[in-house]
Structures are given as C-alpha cells and as structure tokens.
Specification:
heterodimer; A: 647 residues; alpha+beta; seven-stranded mixed sheet; 25 helices; 19% strand; B: 379 residues; mainly alpha; three-stranded antiparallel sheet; 3% strand; globular; transmembrane (chain B); glycosyltransferase (chain B); FtsW/RodA (chain B)
C-alpha cells in the first residue's frame, strides 16, 4: 500500500505535536526532581548530615579504674587486680566447636563455661567477642597466647576487677562491689551511663558504697565509626577518663588484723578509736567473710552458709549491732547525777545486796552487798544498788540527756551501711513506742544499762573517748580522699566540769588497777601505758523469781544464745589518753573475763601499732599471753592470711 | 508501508555510516555509564573487581551490539519487530515456568551463566511491535475502536506476564510505554480520557470503600497499601531503605562528602546501594552539584533523542525513537522519585548506572536501534 506524501506528513506532524507535549511533561518532571533534590541536599542538608553522623558514630564508654582504698599507713585494702580472660570471636574462629575443643585441652574449661559460651553466641553478632573463661591464671593465659596460631578467633584479654587482699579483715568496713542491679539504678536520679556497661561493678555496702561517687571515677569515651550492623570500623577519637579517687582510711590494717584474729571465732565486735581526733583505728566485727566471693559472684552454698550461721558473719556488729550496755553505762548515770547536783563525788550509799522499791527487789550482782559505797567504789566494784539509788534521785530524763551528750542513742555518721541509732529511752520515747507511762522500775533498770537501753559498740567507744578527753569527739573513718586530707576540727568541750570527769576517770582507773577492781586481771603493767576501763555484763533474758530462788545458774550451763553478753570499755594511757576501746562479746559471759582481756590487747596493739609488747603485761601473765599471741593467725607483711600462704 | 524504501539512495552505506551516527548521544551514554563505574568503584570501597569491572565489560559488550545494530538498516529491524515480540513473549512464558527465583520473584533465565531478564527485553520489543503496527496501519484507522484494541492487547499480554512474576514496577512501565506509543501514534484523546477516568474512579471507589459495609478489599490489603504509599510509617521495615536513602542524599549537601567518602554507602546503611539505590551514593559523595549535573546529562540524552526523532520522517523510526526515549524517561523518573521519597519503592533500576547486565545490554541495544533509525533516516 502506498500512501500519499501529504497523509504521512500530516501523521508525522501530529506525532511531533504530541511528542512535544510529552517532552513538556518530561521537562516538568525533571524540574520536580531537581527541586526535590535541592530541598533534600541544600535546604534540609544540615538535618540529614546530622542523621548520617548519628548513623555512623557510636560512643562507647571506657570504664575508669576504681579508686584504691588504703589504710592509714598506705597499705592496700581494696585494689584492682588484673583479670585475665579468654574471649572468642565467632566469625574469626570458623569452626567454633573445634576451636573450643582445642582450647579445652589447653586450659581447664568447665561444661558450664562451654554451655554459657554457646548460649551467648546464639544471641550476639558474629563479630562480638564472647568471654569463654574468666579469672585465669597467668600461666593459663600464656598458654593461650602461645597457642594462638592454632586457635583462630581466640584472644587473651586483660581487664580490671576489684580485689580485697586482706579479705576477711575488712569485709565489714569496705563492703564489696557487685554488678549493677535494677534496684541500684532506680535509687539514682540520673544514673551515670557508665553503670549501663555490662559487668560494671558498683559498691554495694560499706565504704565501697558510701564513697561510690569518689571511688568510681569518670568514664572515658571512645567515638567509633560503626556500620549498619554495628561492627566497629575504626576509632575516631579517644578521650581517657579519670580513674576514681584513692581513699585513705583512718584504720591501721595491722591493728585491725590483730583485733580480728584476737576475737577469733567469737560472735563479737571491737572498736578502737583515737580519742584525740576520732580516728577509728580498728573497727572489727567477728566472725567475718570473704568479700572477694561477692565480687566474683558468690555460690548459693557459700551464701546460704553465711546466712545460716548463728554468729551472723554478714552483720557488721560494730555499728549495726545494739546491745544493752550493762555496767559500762554506769558512768553516764553517775555523770547525770553529779551534773544535776543530786550527789557529790563523796556521796555514799549503803548496799545490802538489793534495793527494795514498790514491793519489788532489785538485786545487786553481789548478793551479799557491797556495804558503804562511794562513787569510785561503785565503779571499781560495779555496785548496782548505788546506781539504783542515784538514778531514782536524778530521773530518767537527765540520764537520757547525758547519754546522748556522750554519743549514745544517736547515729554517728560514717561511710558504713545500716548504722544503728540505738536506744536512749526516756518518758516520751516509751509513751510513743509502747503507749505506756514510764515507771521508776524502768529508771532503775536503765541506770545499770539494762531494760530499754541499747547501744552499739561504736557508741560505747565514742562514750569512752568523750569521758577520757572531756570533749565531744566524733568518730571518723576517712582520712583523705584523692590525697586531700579530710580536715578534723578540735572537738568542742563536752561541758562537764573537769573535777567531775576526773572522779569518773579515777573510778575507771580503779576498775582496772584497784585491789577489788572487776577488770584487775586485765590491767596494763607498763607505767606509761596504764589503762582505765569498765566492764559490763548484760543479761539477754529475764531471771524469774523462781529461778532466783533456786539459785542463779551460771552462764556455762546455759545454751550459747542465752548466755550474757560480755562488754568492756576502756582507754589508755590513763594520764594522757590516746585510744579508747569498746568490746562486745555476744553471749560471752562476764565482761571482766570475756571482754576486758580483748580490750586490753586491742588497745596495746593500737598503742604499738601491731602486736602488743609482752612487757606491758603483768609479769605473772606473760607466759600465758605469749603462748596466746603466738597462736593467733596473723597476716604477714603483705597481708596474706597464714593458711592461704601455706596453700 | 512508508515512503522509506524509495529514498534509500540518499542513505549512507558501508563504513560511511560511522560518520552519520548520532555521536553526541553515544558520548552522553558513555559519560553516564562512566559515572556509574565511578559510583560502583566507590561503593565497593575502591575495588574494581566487585562491581565496576564487570559493569564495564557488560558495557563494552553492549556497545559492540549497539554499533552492530546501528549499521543494520532500520527497515530490517522493522520487519523483525513481530518476530522479536513473539520471541520475548515466549521467553516471558518460559521464565514463568523455568525461571530462577530471585528476590521473591521469577525474573531470570540462566543461559550459560548469563542471567537474562526477559522482562527487560519485553520493553524494547513492545515498542518495536507497536511502532511497526502503527507504521503498517492506515493512519485514518488509528482511532477506530477495533484498531485501538489490538495495541491494547499487545501491551496487556507482556504486562500480565510480568505482573505474574510478580514485578509490579516493570509491569507499570510496560503499560506506560504502550500508552505513550499509542498517544504518539495519534490515538484519540477520548480513549485516554476514558481509561484514565475509569482507573481513577476505580481507585477512588476502592479507597472510599474502606471502613464501610461494602469494603472492596480486606483490611490487611489496605494496610499493605498504606505502607506502600507511606513507607516512613515502618522505619525499620519497608521504610528503612527510603529513610536511609534520603539521609544519604540529604547529607551530601551542596558539594557532597567527596569521592569514596560516603559514610551511608560505605558503612552499609544503604541497602541495594549498587543497584536500585545507586543514585543515593552519588548524591552523598558529589552533593547537589554532582546530582544536578547527572540530571543534565540525562536531560541531554532525552533532548538528542527528541532532536533525532524530529529530524526523522519515517513513522516507524519516530515512534521507535520516542518510545525508547519514553521508556528511558520512565525508568529515570520512577527510580529517582522512589529514591528521593516522592514515590513508593518499586524495583526499578537507574538506566546506565545501576549494576546489572540485562538492563544495561537492553538499553544499549535500544540505543543501537535509535542510531540505526538515525543513520538510515529518509533524507
């Protein structure tokens, strides 16, 4: 078929017209695309640049080294130990099972390790390193490094973990660190992002917890470039953080160690305090536990063992434990009466062995009675009736007030956990607590530190320090932080006349040095170090009238947990007081036999900075003391326990 | 038949044809391809062997094909149109039953290690078929219903086959190509008006029925439409690509981050960065200036196609050139709209830039046809 040229040319013209129309449409589309491109890469460029950077850059934290805790002489109490571990990277390992099997021949791997590794591997990206074994010895780590060529994807690593070289000695003081829990995070307003690092450890109790902010340090940051699946491509920038501040405590590690060993297996507490500035030289709770177990993650068996022990090793009895102070409270009653002018230092009371009041008999510990008793004798022989008498005259309010003045019934602020306030009862307290009126009988009980009165060993030490100095000494545990000394102000006077205090002190001196003193057998013989003190024996049960009629059973015949608590407070040297001590031996029996000897040894240890010199003891006791001291499981100069050095 | 045959004596013969090739178009196509090699080199982290090298080989092969096709007279290709069309339809059927499954769709035929995508071929053979049809058809019959239905059927057959793969993007482009050639051939506006109205009304009806008693689709189907239209509502799933693509484009700014400095592509935040989303790498590394230059290059390619078409009086040639140009444009427009977040994500490569053998070869073959039409145009 042949077409006329005109017809084809018409058709072509039509086509061209429509083509131009289409071309116009295309141009319009190009304009739209160009405009959109302009909008994206010019108008919105800044925002998209930011988004691209956010995609690309990830900030990782570098955990800082935790501050080291020293004793007053610079001995390390809590340090950071190199922790050797072996990690495996799945994508580099190739045949993971084969590599792990080979690794198990080189270092000991438990089935548990392998199990956990396999589980973690399924969860994480192939390029993320997974810890196979932790806390390896240097030898094992060297073996892994040596065999590296045949272990693809396996690499040895070094990290820091908390270590307590003097483990049991400082468990209660330092506490321990542990992994950050949800509860820890909730307790903080704006938790440090550092705490979100897996396996980061935070102070859980004790100094570790209360000085957490100083010890933690500031995290460093690593700006790294990551790709879409989170693999680290390179490090862009690194800013080192600041390690935590080092902390120096007031405690003398050697004295602490000696006192801990001296308390042995008893359920007991002892506090030694420098009366001049309040420094706590030793603050020991027994029995103790190994805080390193908690850092590593304590096993159920170990934990249950600690929980079920009736001597409560986990409790810090020095500040958490409260006990009736018994006769160690008598100084307070006497001070209240003297200060109120109800008695004078020469006032004498007759002790027939009991005081009858309102049809009830309050017995003196000495059933035969002490006869005529003045202040000094009341202390040295610990006559109860004397105090029953003067307490009635002065009343509970003044006694309670005096107790608080001397640091009883108030909370002393130390960086330790669960510090108890104790109880210094008065009328208002009883009314509020028991909705009952105060009775004279309550005052009589309180006068000898029984009844409602409860004090902690720390409070007793503070009380003794205040009696010894006449100043309101405040205990402290931290000597310096990050090299900066914590300032101590000279304690203000307690406001009791020196005459009265001197009389009390001489009574306490008589306790230890007079012929009939209750703690005479625990006296210090060295003239320069003479000691003053007071014993106490506090009942933990009520003695019924029937029981009394049968004759009071001696402590030895009672089950352990019903025996009396043994207490002792003291200070030395008598003429120029330096250290105060308080000892509580739970269910230890009599204060003069169970607590006073420990108090003497502790204060001698503080005075000499270590093991007490035999010369300080009365010559008749030296043989016995020497063999006792030799048997004590003391640490060596590096702080290693005797049995661990043998192992 | 057209008047082409009796003016043949003016058409250059032998090697003299080289002088009459549309050289600006060849240069432009090579330039755009070269940009693609650069981008592929950069995305591979400075490695030639990953993508760029192979892309260059495919280009070389395609260029040879282009020249061979250009030297063969255009009337030969016109006479081959029906056969080419039938062959491509058969291949589409074959791929339907024996094709290699990739990305959830049956698309490829594996021929001795070379992957052939019949759907790519079908775009060119459809243009050829329709151009030949209108060349053959009496111009006066163009708008008669029966003669309109024939090209509609010719378009719908490959469209349906591609849709079954399922490859929605290519199917839509086939429909648009068919419509464009028919429009250029002079089919009455009324038909287009009617079809557009009908499609529009259907879409409106479906969308309007949502939530009513006479809902035309299931809820999950509507939700699929939602994510299809607004991928940002699913930032880690369907929307991830498009969001990351826009971040890449936008973060380039005026001048870009520099060659091989694109963090989005180098660090794998961009998926499909070497294929459908290759434009984003360019935007990131060369910025607005670079991308705008590329758009100018594309615009020039289209312009030269138009100029060539306007110079040509042969009806087959004109429809062929414009059909191919329209095809090229649709690729471009759909891909760029998708990448820039103006259109939903459909799998359409960017011509001459995206990595992929079939698309590159088919495009070069198509430009060979344009060259042939240009060289052998009636004078």
């Amino acid at each position: 078929m042949r077409r006329s040229p005109k017809e084809t040319e018409d058709a072509a013209r039509g086509t061209h017209r429509r083509a131009l129309l289409l071309g116009g449409g295309m141009t319009a589309m190009f304009a739209v695309l160009g405009a959109r491109m302009h909008y994206l890469s010019v108008d919105q460029a800044d925002q998209f640049k930011l988004l691209a950077e956010e995609n690309r850059i990830s900030i990782r934290l570098i955990p800082p080294a935790r501050g080291v805790i020293h004793d007053r002489n610079g001995k390390v109490l809590a340090g950071n130990e190199q922790n050797y571990r072996v990690v495996i990277t799945r994508e580099d390992a190739g045949d993971v099972d084969a590599v792990l099997a080979k690794l198990a021949h080189i270092i000991p791997l438990t089935a548990d390790d392998l199990d956990r590794t396999a589980k973690e591997m399924n969860r994480t990206s192939p390029f993320a390193p997974i810890t196979v074994a932790d806390r390896l010895s240097w030898e094992d780590l060297s073996k892994v490094a040596l065999n590296a060529p045949s272990l693809p994807g396996v690499s040895p690593e070094v990290g820091l973990s908390r270590q307590y070289p003097r483990d049991t000695d400082f468990a209660h003081v330092l506490g321990y660190v542990g992994p950050v829990s949800e509860r820890d995070l909730e307790a903080l307003d704006s938790p440090d992002p550092l705490l979100r690092i897996p396996k980061f450890q935070i102070g859980k109790i004790g100094v570790e917890r209360w000085l957490e902010d100083q010890l933690r340090g500031r995290a460093g940051t690593r700006r790294i470039e990551v790709n879409a699946v989170g693999r680290v491509m390179r490090e862009l920038e690194r800013e080192e953080g600041d390690p935590g501040s080092d902390v120096r405590l007031t405690i003398n590690a050697d004295v602490q160690n000696f006192v801990q060993a001296r308390l042995g297996d008893e359920s007991a507490a002892a506090v030694v305090m420098d009366v001049t500035n309040g420094d706590l030289i030793a603050i020991v709770s027994s029995p103790s536990f190994d805080p390193n177990l908690f850092v590593r993650g304590i096993s159920h068996t170990d934990y249950n063992g600690l929980m079920e022990n009736d001597h409560r090793p986990l409790a810090n009895k020095t500040v958490q434990g409260v006990y009736p102070p018994g006769s160690t409270f008598k100084m307070i009653t006497a001070l209240a009466a003297l200060e109120a002018g109800m008695i004078t230092v020469n006032t004498s009371v007759r002790c027939p062995g009991y005081l009858e009041f309102g049809g009830r008999r309050f017995h003196c510990w000495k059933r035969a009675g002490h006869g005529a008793v003045d202040l000094e004798k009341s202390l040295s022989e610990s006559c109860d009736v004397y105090y029953y008498d003067i307490a009635q005259r002065v009343g509970i309010e003044k006694i309670a007030e005096m107790g608080k003045r001397f640091g009883l019934g108030i909370r002393h602020d130390l960086p330790m956990s669960a510090i108890a306030e104790g109880i210094m009862p008065n009328r208002a307290w009883k009314q509020e607590r028991q909705q009952e009126d105060w009775r004279i009988g309550d005052t009589i009980n309180a006068s000898i530190g029984q009844g409602y009165v409860l004090t902690s060993p720390l409070q007793l030490a503070v009380m003794t320090a205040r009696i010894a100095t006449g100043r309101a000494v405040v205990p402290r545990l931290v000597r310096s932080v990050d090299g900066k000394e914590v300032p101590v102000e000279e304690a203000p006077s307690i406001g009791i006349s020196e005459e009265i205090l001197r009389k009390i002190r001489s009574g306490m001196y008589a306790v230890m040095n007079a012929e009939r003193g209750t703690a005479k057998s625990s006296r210090i013989a060295d003239e320069a170090l003479l000691m003053a003190g007071k014993t106490g024996t506090s009942q933990v049960r009520n003695i019924t009238a029937a029981e009394r009629a049968r004759g009071v059973i001696s402590n030895d015949q009672l089950p352990w947990n019903r025996r009396d608590h043994a207490l002792f407070v003291g200070y030395a040297p008598y003429t120029n007081p330096r250290y105060a001590v308080s000892v509580v031996v739970e269910h230890g029996g009599g204060g003069s036999t169970a607590a006073a000897p420990v108090g003497r040894d502790a204060i001698l240890s503080a005075l000499t900075g270590g093991i007490p010199p035999l010369s300080a003891y009365p010559s008749s006791q030296r043989n016995r003391i020497e063999s006792m001291l030799e048997k004590l499981p003391l640490r060596d100069a590096e702080g290693r326990a005797p049995d661990s050095s043998r192992a | 038949m057209s008047f082409l045959e009796y003016r043949v004596k003016f058409v250059p013969t032998g090697l003299r044809k080289v002088l009459h090739l549309n050289w600006p178009l060849i240069v432009l196509v090579t330039a755009v391809s070269a940009v693609g090699w650069l981008a592929l080199y950069s995305i591979a982290g400075g490695r030639l062997d990953v993508w760029a090298g192979r892309q260059m080989q495919v280009f070389a092969l395609g260029a040879v094909l282009m020249f061979i096709i250009a030297f063969v007279p255009i009337w030969f290709w016109r006479n081959m149109s029906l056969i080419a069309y039938v062959v491509s339809i058969l291949l589409l059927l074959v791929v339907e039953f024996f094709g290699v499954t990739g990305m959830g769709a049956q698309r490829w035929l594996d021929i001795g290690g070379f992957r052939l995508q019949p759907s790519e071929m079908a775009k060119i053979t459809l243009v050829m078929m329709l151009a030949a049809y209108y060349d053959w058809l009496d111009v006066k019959k163009t708008s008669r219903l029966f003669w309109v239905l024939i090209p509609v059927v010719l378009t719908v057959i490959p469209t349906v086959l591609v849709l079954m793969q399922p490859n929605l993007g290519t199917a839509l482009i086939l429909l648009m190509i068919g419509g464009t050639v028919m429009l250029l051939a002079g089919v009455s506006w009324w038909y287009f008006g009617a079809v557009i109205s009908a499609v529009g009304a259907t879409i409106w009806a479906v969308m309007a029925s949502r939530g009513t008693d006479w809902q035309l689709l299931h809820d999950y189907q509507f939700r699929r439409i939602d994510t299809f239209l607004d991928p940002t509502s699913d930032p880690l799933g369907a929307g991830y690509n498009i969001i990351q693509a826009q971040i890449a484009l936008g973060s380039g700014g005026w001048g870009g981050k520099g060659f091989m400095q694109g963090t989005q592509s180098r660090l794998n935040f961009l998926p499909e960065k070497h294929t459908d989303f290759i434009f984003t790498t360019l935007g990131e590394e060369f910025g607005f200036v670079g991308v705008f230059s590329l758009l100018v290059l594309y615009g020039l390619i289209l312009l030269f196609c138009y100029v060539s078409a306007m110079q040509n009086k042969d009806r087959f040639s004109v429809l062929l050139i414009l059909g191919i140009a329209a095809n090229f444009f649709f690729y471009l427009a759909v891909n760029l709209s998708m990448v820039m977040g103006l259109a939903p994500v459909v799998g359409i490569p960017l011509p001459f830039l995206s990595y992929g053998g079939s698309a590159m070869l088919v495009l070069l073959v198509a430009f060979g046809l344009i060259q042939s039409a240009h060289v052998h145009r009636p004078r």
